[in-house]
């Protein structure tokens, strides 16, 4: 089609005024110029939009139908312009967030609620992704920001320390030490452990095995689970003991008790990580909120 917004706008103003002189004045053009726009549009459409005499201007039925649809189209265009401007300034948009178990069981829900109140027009899409797979998800543009078990040390990434949780022991309620106020990891040197499976829990397992070796033993893994819920269920069933981040206290789970580990000073760090340079204003708004309002620390 060889007509544009100026043709449509001119006809809409003429339809409101039904007078070429007044319409031309509103459009800051001449009456002959407006007549030419109308004629070009009618020629392109192949139908008369106005009935014109020396004294009156009226819409034809075709003109009424056409211009009613044009008004709807212009409303959509104005909305598109508004949304584009809001997206460009980070007021609205979409943010894709990857998370692992410790993040979603810890402070991440609180952060999501706070940010959603701060930027309600930014829609958050959350995906559960193990820590070691979040790097690829970021590189492949599947997520905008990830919450991982450790910082990604690379010139292509930025990270902020989001949370630090002490290690705790998970024991079945029937365990002899379930009534103790605190325990030591080496107290369980000869007991079977329940751990997350290697595919999704590699980062945690490596850190856990290093702590066990420092405490003078190699843990016996009796059973593996692919999720936190699986770990909790197996511990509750008495299959073995386990360790977890202290954020587990936020999760209600029957059949297990949680005890501090006196001989493990280590913490489990969760980092927010994203690609540099930041190309999304939604991500810019999120990371700024995270660093300033939320108070995360630079890694």
UniProtKB/TrEMBL annotation:
<dbReference type="InterPro" id="IPR000847">
    <property type="entry name" value="LysR_HTH_N"/>
</dbReference>
<comment type="similarity">
    <text>Belongs to the LysR transcriptional regulatory family.</text>
</comment>
<keyword id="KW-0805">Transcription regulation</keyword>
<dbReference type="Pfam" id="PF00126">
    <property type="entry name" value="HTH_1"/>
</dbReference>
<feature type="domain" description="HTH lysR-type">
    <location>
        <begin position="12"/>
        <end position="60"/>
    </location>
</feature>
<keyword id="KW-0804">Transcription</keyword>
<dbReference type="Pfam" id="PF03466">
    <property type="entry name" value="LysR_substrate"/>
</dbReference>
<dbReference type="GO" id="GO:0003700">
    <property type="term" value="F:DNA-binding transcription factor activity"/>
</dbReference>
<dbReference type="GO" id="GO:0032993">
    <property type="term" value="C:protein-DNA complex"/>
</dbReference>
<dbReference type="InterPro" id="IPR005119">
    <property type="entry name" value="LysR_subst-bd"/>
</dbReference>
<dbReference type="GO" id="GO:0003677">
    <property type="term" value="F:DNA binding"/>
</dbReference>
<keyword id="KW-0238">DNA-binding</keyword>
<dbReference type="InterPro" id="IPR036388">
    <property type="entry name" value="WH-like_DNA-bd_sf"/>
</dbReference>
<protein>
    <submittedName>
        <fullName>LysR family transcriptional regulator</fullName>
    </submittedName>
</protein>
<dbReference type="InterPro" id="IPR036390">
    <property type="entry name" value="WH_DNA-bd_sf"/>
</dbReference>
